[in-house]
Amino acid sequence: MTPDDFPYPDTNYQEDNRGQFHFSTRAGWMNDVNAPLYYRGVYHLYYQHNPFSLVWDTMHWGHATSPDLVHWTQRPIALDPHVHPGDLWSGGGVVDTANASGLKDGDDDPIIVYSGTNGVTVFYSLDGGATFTTYADGKKVVTPGGTSRDPKVFWDPVSKQWGMVVWSDEGGNGVDFSTSANLLDWTFASRYRADWLFECPNLIRMPIDGGYRWLLHGGSGEYQVGDWDGTAFRTDWTGPQKINQTATHAGSGYYAALNFENLPDDRVVSMAWQGENKGSIWTGNASFPVDLKLQHTAEGLRVFSTPIPELAALRESTQSWENLTVEDGVQEIPAGTTYELEATIDVSRATRFTLKVGREVTYQDQRLDGAELLPVNGKIKLHLLVDRDQLDVFGNDGAVYQSYNVPPAELELVAEGRAVVEQLTIHQLRSIWR
User: Fold this and answer.
1) CA dihedral 284, 288, 289, 294 (to 10 degrees)
2) Which sequence positions are flagged as catalytic?
3) Do both 173 and 254 map to the same domain?
4) Which structural domain, as residue segments, surrounds residue 399?
5) What's the half-sphere exposure (Cβ side, CA atoms, 13 Å) at 434?
6) In a shared domain, residues 356 and 389
7) What is the pLDDT of residues 192-237, one digit of tens each?
8) What pLDDT, on a 0 to 100 scale, did the predictor assign at position 359?
9) How remote is the C-alpha of 351 from its chain's centroid?
């Protein structure tokens, strides 16, 4: 390993603002999540990276691994523009467990990743995702019209083909779909155009009702649910919904999410880029992983997002309160700056209820910071992850999901009218870096 492979200073990850259970790169710039995947007991997270600066510039692929999706270890650079040709921008990856590519040479299954702008380039690893070789001297395997980027590959067990979705602006925002039997030779299949579908596209096969539907989303987390027939995505939706109900855009508190490939049991785990966090030696972090599930609602199928249960391994102490009444006033709660909060609140007699956690998380007129959240028997559930400068908010078991970068502050409960916090639990969370 050369210094350019691991160009990072020593750190204990305790710098001001750095999250203690949200992944951030050891040093340098981080943006989009790339090619998250699971292989032989190890979760791999690749990401857009400039290891030599705190701002975006010549993209590399950074790399970190985890045994549990919670504790992460920085690894050497995975894709380096001095070694791997092309613009190493965002992309996805797969584990070729059946050796469809024929690239296998040894005990490890090939791990194949896709990157490049205005044409897709293939790189493959034969050592479990640590180092990558350029396929066919960087030959473009797919070249959509117009400007294009952000290839993502998926498996369709019905047609028994691989599919690739790539964003391009040919004729307006949309994606090109291609198919392949061997992950290397691709045939154009169809185009799906939508004004909302910009950058970092993803198509996910989601279990529901004993079967499956397909979820198509873009970089902002806007999505539609439909069907994939082996060559094309079709839906009867006239507009999109949002996975994360915030002002999502590049550099915001949520953007460019991808799901981990090769997970067992149809599990769908997603991570995104949170772009507003920065400190003395790094810029940007990843959102805490969430489980994505389709659920029926009165409005139709919707994506529900919940923090992965592996988070519980970080709990080191717990405090609970019952039946806290806050009436036209403020209730202060000792909490610190790194914790998990779970609460059930009776809001039937409150006109407004707010959790102050550096940001005001406010419920009013059946909306949580602008996102519809209907009470059940007059009650709502809130689940917050507070991690110094990172904040993730979940409402009613994942019906609402919101992510922010905000400065920490003391926890306060504020009510206009009478709110009864029937149950409040705060788990202090230990650092993943220690």
Assistant:
1) -110
2) 32
3) yes
4) 316-429
5) 7
6) yes
7) 999 999 999 999 999 999 999 999 999 999 999 999 999 999 999 9
8) 95
9) 33
82 domain-assigned: yes
What is the C-alpha separation between 94 and 39, in angstroms, rounded? Answer: 10
For residue range 307-348, list pLDDT tens digits in order. 999 999 999 999 999 999 999 999 999 999 999 999 999 999
Report yes or no: 240 and 248 within 8 Å, Cβ to Cβ: no
Q: Residue 257 domain-assigned?
A: yes
Let me know whether 233 and 355 are in one domain. no
Burial of 264 (0-12, 13-18, 19+ CB in 10 A): exposed
> How many Cβ atoms are within 10 Å of 10's Cβ, its own excluded?
6
What CATH code is carried by the domain that includes residue 196? 2.115.10.20
CB-based contacts of 66: which residues, under 8 Å, 6+ apart? 42, 43, 45, 72, 73
218 and 188 within one domain: yes
Among 260, 289, 310, where does a domain finish?
310
Using alpha carbons, select from 206, 203, 269 the residue that is nearest to residue 43.
269
Across-strand partners of 352?
416
Q: Which two three-digit tokens encode residue 413?
A: 């409960």
